[in-house]
Amino acid sequence: PAERAALKDKIRRLLKEKNAVMVSHYYVHPDLQDLAEETGGIVSDSLKMARFGRDHAAQTLVVSGVRFMGETAKILSPEKTVLMPDLDATCSLDLGCPIDEFSAFCDQHPERTVVVYANTSAAVKARADWLVTSSCALDIVRALKDAGHKILWAPDRHLGAYIERETGADMVFWNGACIVHDEFKALELELLKKEHPQAKVLVHPESPPEVVALADAVGSTSAILQAAREMDAREFIVATDNGMMHKLRRLNPGKTFHEAPTAGNSATCKSCAHCPWMAMNGLADVARVLETGANAIHVDPALIPRARQPIDRMLAFTA
Ligand code: 13P
Ligand code: SF4
């Protein structure tokens, strides 16, 4: 604890010295969430992280999350320095959607509007017409469908299938998945619901369809937070990365939150729903990158103008 407190003090001092601001995702360690908020930064979902980073006056952004979040910040503000605690913090959706294969898939469907999830590389974004995050995907696809578009969707097949069910849009899918949400299990969830009959079930739409079908509310990390605040219930079961529990409990004292079961829940692993890449973000690395300027995100300047188009469209749509 003494070491953590010293690191936090050091980070507070360095943020001021370097005119830097922290942007953290809900899935990173509670220390990094609290520190971001306390120092004038933000803890949020991927959409709000992008907008905050673009609009903040600080010339240095420290993005605690995974690589695509740092890259999006850099694409939106190439003149800023974007630092990340660990540059190897990636995402199974990004890894599972290499640009060459994705581009060939797009070439097979030239008549379709290409909609990609934020959890992708800059090169994949540069091949897309629209970018979406889980908090705006439904509204954007619905608007595109109403305007007569057929959709090519990548990379998360569960989120894509959820949107197809909700909107009735004509969609073809890339076959990607989030290794965290893909692990939630419907049968075990039904059993847990029986143990807690009053509990409402909150599910992130990257989860499998059988799990989504058991939800009382489906949505992005922000939508889950909102549902927990607004729903008339004292008890919840939550199917998303357990990093979310920190904010859920902080904002809802007196309410009880249970983690939804994954295949790995057992006597030895009670909380398996945690992204290994989000877990790579730590206090010591934040202090180190602020001090040394190491781990600056670089995006190929040739990609930036084209990659920015779908991001700008999303930000304008959701403004
Ligand atoms: P949100 O876009 O809901 O923040 O979550 C996406 C995600 O899984 C980030 O890794
Ligand atoms: Fe990617 Fe899933 Fe981790 Fe989010 S939680 S960064 S979608 S692997």
Automatic annotation (TrEMBL):
Enzyme class: transferase
Location in or out of the cell: Cytoplasm
Cofactor: [4Fe-4S] cluster
Coiled-coil parts of chain: none
InterPro entries for the chain: NadA, NadA_sf
Pfam families listed in its UniProt record: NadA
Keywords: 4Fe-4S, Cytoplasm, Iron, Iron-sulfur, Metal-binding, Methyltransferase, Pyridine nucleotide biosynthesis, Transferase
EC number(s) per entry: 2.5.1.72
PANTHER family (alphabetical): QUINOLINATE SYNTHASE, CHLOROPLASTIC, QUINOLINATE SYNTHETASE A
The protein, known as: Quinolinate synthase
Organism: Acidovorax ebreus (strain TPSY)
